[in-house]
Predict the structure.
Amino acid sequence: MSYSTEPIVIEPSVLTLLDAGTVEVLRTGQKLTLPGPMVWHAWGPLEGPVILLLHGGSGSWMHWIRNIAPLVAQGHRVLAVDLPGFGDSAAPAQGGDVDALIEPLHAAWQMLQGPNLGAAFVGFSFGGMTAALWLAAYPEDAKRLVMVGSPGLGLTVPDRIPLKGWRHLPTEALQAEAHRHNLMALMLKHERSLDDLAMAVHVANVKRDRMPRRRLSSTPIVAGALPQIQCQLHVIYGEGDALYKGRWPEVQALFKAQAPHLTSWHLVPDSGHWVQYERTDAFQLALLACTAETAALSPNK
């Protein structure tokens, strides 16, 4: 089987809100359409160290909209997938949750990359779950894994603010109100972070969510997979992440107990769940530490 390549397509409502430098880099990208169809995106030099970005639930590659240009500037070959059921990728042929994504992603990776080329997988939220299950099943597919804001640990925060449904609402204004509520309830810590770009990315993403009944994130599915992950494992959370706010000692203890190759632990201050968007510079420094060969050999505080 083969795949097709064409110039990248960026949502116009998002494109107009980006600075000129970011637009220039993003427009150099390619859209790769694989069987499924499954859509990937690629930037940067072919010979650069490979970073694969996996987005969060109800998302697309645009969850990384502020991170791709800095990674390209560092010389990386950046790949960002629209996971099956999200963005421009069709829903998986069977199943409707994270466990249905592993086989199609592994097959696509073999088509694009062949054997292990020392890649780093960076998964945000649902994408962190996906990457963890993927590398538990196929440990040869990456050299290191960075889990960002990952659920699936079997821990809960009792006072979490519930999300609101929006598809049934009759006007765009009411839908926008629900979107703003959901972004602040789950994704962001500060009202000032909910700018026009965050809103445009979120709205474009959630409209294309074709897997709305996901439930495995509330189970300990990731905790159970951690012992099977054989590559270096790095963990990044925003300190104000709504998933585990106030439970960081337990979260860190779980990773230490369950992940035999845990290499570093990072809490990014003053940020929520969507840490790579809300505190881009601080996140990039944490990610650079994770993906560099000189990354710390033991978890830090």
In short: DSSP finds eleven helices and nine strands in the chain. The chain has a mean pLDDT of 94. The CA atoms of residues 75 and 253 lie 34 Å apart. The chain has one domain: 4-291.
